[in-house]
Design a protein that fits this description.
InterPro entries: Channel_Tsx-like (IPR018013), Channel_Tsx-like_sf (IPR036777). By secondary structure, the protein is mainly beta. Helices cover 10% and strands 64% of the residues.
């Protein structure tokens, strides 16, 4: 894609979004704060990165014509300040012409990591039509643009167009023995990465995601367990995983 094509695409997109942004009606909003423990050495693979104490916060809002979700995570709180790292994510879907198809945008940043800081910018299209009282499945496909401090001796900086992403967010709401439960999943396939980032992450393609079981109780508290998985991602070669245990308060 040359720069003129990109400018034309962005201008068209801006016109579409301006038309959709008028008179948004809030349908629901949600948020929580959480604290817990994770272990890189538990799971199917021992990645030899040890224990992690962490704190997180998330907030989301669903409108009649758009959706928004954000997430913040502070990791390795059991280490000195200089050994900690942070994750920030914000994702939106804006419905196109009142349909179930959407423009999708996402920012996903990882900072103060041993394998390098990076900000992932994704923009593409999604689908919101598979949603109801029992759960949802929201897929998307996007261009992947990267801002990274990694520099390859062979390929130069990892910045710029970084291939494509095919992903989704999904959830299933159900009762178990009279208790409210949620099984949720987010997943991204990173495809055709640029050469410098592929060198850093050990492959042209990678996987990033998590599967979470949440128990909601009394009435604003929740407990969750997440199976965090990745393949040629997070600076780790091949498949790796992590188990995360969290307690949270919903507001």
């Amino acid at each position: 894609m040359n720069i003129n094509d990109l400018r034309g695409w962005l201008l068209t997109l801006a016109v579409l979004l301006a038309g959709q942004a008028q008179a948004l009606e809030l349908k629901t909003s949600y948020g929580s704060v959480n604290a817990g423990y994770a272990n890189w050495n538990n799971g199917f693979e021992n990645t030899h990165r040890g224990e992690v104490w962490k704190a997180t916060a998330d907030f989301g809002a669903i409108f009649d014509k758009a959706e928004f979700y954000s997430f913040f995570e502070s990791n390795v709180l059991n280490h000195p300040v200089e050994g900690r790292n942070h994750v920030l994510s914000a994702q939106t879907h804006v419905r196109l012409f009142d349909s179930d198809f959407s423009f999708m945008g996402k920012l996903y940043g990882q900072f103060e990591n041993k394998w390098g800081d990076e900000l992932n910018m994704m923009y593409g299209f999604g689908y919101l039509g598979w949603a109801g009282p029992q759960g949802f499945f929201k897929p998307y496909v996007a261009l992947h643009n990267l801002s990274s401090d990694y520099t390859s001796r062979k390929y130069g900086q990892a910045n710029g167009l970084n291939g494509y992403v095919v992903g989704w967010t999904a959830a299933w709401f159900f009762d178990l023995w009279g208790e409210k439960m949620v099984l949720s999943n987010w997943n991204e396939f990173e495809l055709d990465r640029n050469d410098a980032y592929a060198e850093q992450q050990h492959s042209k393609n990678g996987i990033n995601g998590g599967l979470t079981l949440t128990w909601k109780f009394y009435p604003h508290f929740k407990a969750s367990m997440t199976y965090r998985y990745f393949d040629n991602k997070l600076g780790y070669e091949n498949y790796g995983d992590q188990l995360i245990y969290m307690l949270g308060y919903e507001f």
